[in-house]
């Protein structure tokens, strides 16, 4: 989510959608599946279809976070305080494959 705050292309998404897409992306990363239950849809007011574009962009931003002009978030999460998570390959890279969304 922090990466989205410094990227102009993410301004088009309302904050509530960014939050919901962050939860969805984290769930996909941890579980390896695109699970968005009726309960999460009810509480977030967003369907899986509404999250797709934002979620894909989040994964893409994470993959190129260390190479852009604005690397402050990458540096922050690359420290030992945050377990060097920025330096690891995003386990959600599979989300960028077209067959994942079929």
Automatic annotation (TrEMBL):
Organism of this sequence: Lactuca sativa
Domain of life, source organism: Eukaryota
SMART domains per UniProt: Cyclin_C (SM01332)
Protein name: Cyclin C-terminal domain-containing protein
Pfam families named in the record: Cyclin_C
InterPro entries on file: Cyclin-like_sf (IPR036915), Cyclin_C-dom (IPR004367)
Domain (Cyclin C-terminal): residue spans on this chain: 1-91
